[in-house]
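Exercise 7 asks you to align residues with tokens for two separate proteins.
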Amino acid sequence: MPEALKRLGYTEGQIAEIIAYVSGTNTFTNAPKLSRKLLLEKGLTEAEIAKAEVALPGVFDVSQALAPWVIGKEAYERIGVPKADISKPGFNLARFFGLSDKELGALNDHVIGRMTIEGAPYLRDEHLPVFDCANRCGKTGKRFLAPISHVRMMAAAQPFLSGAISKTVNLPNEATVEDVENIYLEGWKLGLKAIALYRDGCKWSQPLSTSNDESHEKSETSSEQKVAAVAKPAEGARPPQSTRHRLPKKRTGFTQEARVGGHKVFLRTGEYGDGSLGEIFVDMHKEGAAFRSLMNCFAISVSMGLQHGVPLSSFVEQFTFTRFEPQGPVEGHPNVKFATSMIDYVFRVLGVEYLKRYDFAHVPPQEVQDEIQNPTDLNTHKQLPGGNVNSEPPPAMVSEIPGHGSTNAMNQQLGEMMGDAPMCDSCGHITVRNGSCYKCLNCGASVGCS
């Protein structure tokens, strides 16, 4: 922004005032109603004020820089904040000091900034389009780029690219179904290969969000409580402590013996009474004491996480496709035939066995293949481990894809294309022939091309 303002002919002094209008002073010095001097009189120390000022550039409200995880709970106790209020969601130290909503708004405008350049001193109206953004900026901003401008920008670049463009078309909250339809239609007319849309406010929580409604205090308080409930705490704050749910003394599970790249591994599991996974053991007897001990410790840490409530799906998403030696073809498991590491093998097996994640299986289980062959049975409900009822078939079991014919025909065609196709070097899935090369339909990598 400073460089753009300089090129537009503004002086250094004018640029400084415009920047201060947009992003604030980021200091409590001479701040209205809550200056550094007043904070010292309220009982804060210079060190605590310094911590708050360091946090100011990264917050959207002064109260967030004065939060207990920033300046410390000791400061709250020293200035007389009740202990019950210290950890209360939505607690605002500035309001505790007696500031009204209007005074707090003026303080935020001075210290944090308006978050918009509209209304900045010295800025001429004809220069406003230079600074237009994808969405309205700040609480008072009105201007934003028209959604169709995103489409036209991508269309200008598309002829020079072989693939699609990863660029989201931002729509305002009041966008209609017809607006979305028009965006897709225009993208098709202009020759785009893909379009992604996002309507402001369509999710309960999103990275950037501002509100224009400041007339109701109750509404504001509710909004602050929502933000406090979903926002990540500042650096140094501890997550809430969870309770460990131990497994029964006698529990069921399975033991799977396999070889990954020629190295033997035993995967053992322990289950809760409802059949959900509660612990794992990974044994490798010929890999040396250090590697074996690291695998044992890793298995213990995963088991502790499962018993403290971390979903198995989080572990599966995090650790599949990790790549290190030993890796290679898998012998001994009916569904997983290749792994990029021992960890990848372990969580592919757990994903298939407990989460029914058949996208991790190179060979689908027999019951899945049977259901693909008998699509009339797809509407039957299945009882999954843990007592959950699966009311929707996995993606691999969908019998019809609009515009693409039946899954049986697709599987037959892919089977003819595979032939002696090798495994993908990147993810381990079986590739399909693509001209004189091979292509992985899972990750998009090409094999055998020069």
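Second protein for Exercise 7:
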Amino acid sequence: MNALAPISVRRLKLDPSISRFLFLRHGRTAYNLRRIVQGHTDIPLDAVGRDQAVAAAELLLGHGSIDRIISSDLSRASATAQTVASRLDLPLLLDPDLRERGFGPFEGGPAIQGLWSRDTEGMETLDLFAGRIARALGRHLDASSSLLVAHGGVLRVLGLMLGVTISDDLVRNAAPLAFSRTDAAWQVTDLSVAINL
């Protein structure tokens, strides 16, 4: 998506006052496995996704202080977040603005080449999606002890706004990521490498 993002999306900037936060994409769903477009369609975690959420929770338990968890309200993200919140004994805040991009008529169909760059009637435009995510992140990225649980598209927009390259490998299901800033540059670290998620 990064190479295809419109100029207006690439110009979005996020400058949180914090220098560190965590991000977790939801666990796997049957649609992920079959490469079917999900968007706003509320698909639950499959058995592998539930196991991934447990593994991510265990990793995050040993990774220092997390004081709050904010998640998309779609069940694949909220169930992942609830697993982590229960293990860490933390409250969970759901925010519908952290949902994946709405793909309208493409939801439930196969993922096709170039879908992210389309602007088809019934789809949420990339600009509207990125603006929604920017507003949500602006509200929630004010504490270094935050964990955001959301979707692959949210992660890619976050990377664009922070000037961080999000490789396909970083968009794996339930791979905990640490974002940190040194001087003016942000970097992302994959915390899941240690447990081979």
